[in-house]
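Final report, section 2: Outcomes. Of the targets proposed, 60S ribosomal protein L6 is the one most frequently requested by collaborating groups, and we therefore present its record in full.
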Amino acid sequence: MPAKKRTVRIGNWYKSDDENVHFVRKRKAPRPAKLRKIVPGQVLILLAGRFQGKRVVFLKQLKSGLLLVTGPFKINGVPLKRVNSAYVIPTSTKVDVNGVNAGQVDDDYFKRTQAQRRKNEQGFWAKRGELTSEQQTAEKTRLEGKRKTQKSIDDALIAAVKKTALLKQYLGARFSIGKTTRPHELVF
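The predicted structure is given below as tokens.
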């Protein structure tokens, strides 16, 4: 009986460090195709981000598919904001938004400016406060316009909120689930 021929397995091949490897993101943010039974004026609960657990009022859907919401800022500190509809819980509470004019707010309203990117003559080495005088005046006028828009929308919303008893306190309270809360029994 002849001896078995022994095979030698060559180890795995690894790329060298200097080879470019394209990064492919494995998971994408959920992007619902259509609006899930959310109507303007409906109160939503934010599930993620800086304002997690805050209740906000839905104003309209933007062309990008995101939702335009606001606190109002004077009640709970949430400014005009774009939110993906996958990260909200719609509630049965509604606010009258007939007097609110959110037509001037669109996706361009939220675009970053040169001043926010800190680009000037020195480029990367520029410090946050180093803006040219033209950039400073442009930034001041842009921020003033945003403040006016926020104030006009908030004033109209606050007037509508005051008409309903305890709605101001409801919007100001944060949503959370305690130890004894049974999430499957919650009704929104």
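The first strand starts at residue 42 and ends at 46.
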